[in-house]
Amino acid sequence: MKNKFYITTAIAYTNGPPHIGHALEFLQVDVLARYHRIMGDDTYFLTGTDEHGATVVKAAEKNGKDVKVFVDEMAEKFKELTRAYNVSNDDFIRTSDQVRHWPAARKIWNLIKDDLYKKNYQGLYCIGHEAFMKKSDLVDGVCPLHKTEPEKIEEENWFFKLTKYKKEVKKKIESGELKIIPETRKQEILNLIDDAEDVSFSRPSKDLKWGIPVPNDETQTMYVWADALTNYISALGYAEENPKFEKYWPADVHLVGKDILRFHAMIWPAMLLSAGLPLPKAIYVHGFITVDGEKMSKTVGNVVDPFEAVKKYSAEVVRYFLLREIPSGDDGDFSYKKLEERYNGDLANGLGNLVQRVATLIENNLDNELIWDKNNLDEIGKKTVEVWFSVTGHTYIRQFELHRSLDKIWEIISGANGYVDERKPWVEAKENPKKFLETMTVLVAMIHHISWLLQPFMPETADKIAKIFGADLSNKEITENYKFIVRKSEGLFPRLK
Ligand code: MSP
User: Fold this and answer.
1) Which part of the chain is the Aminoacyl-tRNA synthetase class Ia domain (predicted)?
2) For residue 104, what are the CA distances in angstroms to 84, 197, 231, 411, 471?
3) Which of the listed residues 9, 27, 50 should we mutate to test ligand 1's pocket, taking the one with most ligand atoms within 8 A of CB?
4) What separation in Å is there between the alpha carbon of 419 and the centre of ligand 1?
5) What is the CATH number of domain 336-485?
6) Residue 1 pLDDT more than 80?
7) Domain-by-domain residue ranges, the chain?
8) What is the number of the ligand 1 atom nearest to the C-alpha of 9?
9) pLDDT on residue 2
10) Which of 86, 326, 369, 452 could tie 332 with a disulfide, CB 3.0–4.6 Å?
11) pTM of the prediction?
């Protein structure tokens, strides 16, 4: 029986085009999804867009566009982002989709109805967060994340009894039944959860029309988070009892940014408990990308356009840079300077050089062909291959430390380049053909291993390397007597001018 693996990204607000932070989140999930597919798991990768709420309406107005037209355009840009970065999502859900999404949001609403009550409420609403904030959350009267003063709101809302479920949710987080990775984020939530209050689950429709009307109460529109969180099950056809829901739910991983952890680790599990549905198994939390050390913001004008980055350097290069440079569970910095340094160092001089050197040596000295035979290795050669094959770094993928997995792969690349320098195969080819064959047998094995490991991170590069050597990446191990046939190729990563 195959395992199933259901993984999701957060769904982005369609209040503007995607930025590089969105690309990072797509890529992190993409690596996990590709890895699980390679492992043979029946994988389902969902992403989408969060299209309701006040922020979105405001952005459409600012752009002088009808909200529907505006969200259609923005959703299209996020779809384009998945294509530009070679992201392997299986599905894309939009919360404005009245056929796929709305029925599920309504169904959940009806199921949790006993835990909803109406009350008059006075609070401070941060539009950037799409959430009420406590006075104690503010710094100098402004939201510390969005740097804006929250709006004072007094209105009648539906409230959800989060307080009723917080103990149970806390227990599940503590026991690891609901895993939160990294550990620091788990502690953060455990510190917050005792103070959690009931949450507003609707806004008066006279103030906010753009959203899902509350079932049986046309005067209210569903709160954008209550609506958005449901995407994780609406996409599986929860409302119409699609077998996909039975098959894939609960999610194995919700991957989200640190700013929205509390919605995923408190409100969403509480909603599911109230509805009698199983909880997701894990929440992986990433940090924020800063740019040249500064917070990315429209006001500062330092927002990195993910489309420009791929146009300049290619999807494979930006994938590599983001996944290696930004520690998966932490904040990290983006700069084109660092990207170019990594390009020259890790890609051109590291991986590209290794592939080029070994391919050329086989081309020039073995007539393009190497039949892989263990018997061509002496004891040291055998041991070398064995040792390198045991280095995989893929355990780090399972721990959501994708950058460390790449560190390991690059250890192998440096090891292989070091081995070439040490053995000097260009001399061996002339003076000792037996030793030369042995060196190439080791190196081809290492390159096969490297490209196999690289697949989730740099799928096109892995394929290109396999093509250059005529290798078969469907097998992790090299089959004895496998015939590698080298084909000439352009350099993988030409040096930047
Ligand atoms: N719509 C909500 C999520 C609803 S999920 C049911 C939302 N949207 S968002 O567009 O603001 O953010 C989408 C994702 O991008 C979030 O996981 C968020 O943390 C992430 N990022 C936003 N800015 C980021 C960076 N600067 N760096 C990395 N990721 C960032 O929140």
Assistant:
1) 2-95
2) 30, 25, 8, 47, 46
3) 50
4) 43
5) 1.10.730.10
6) no
7) 1-101+230-249+287-334, 336-485
8) 17
9) 85
10) 326
11) 0.96
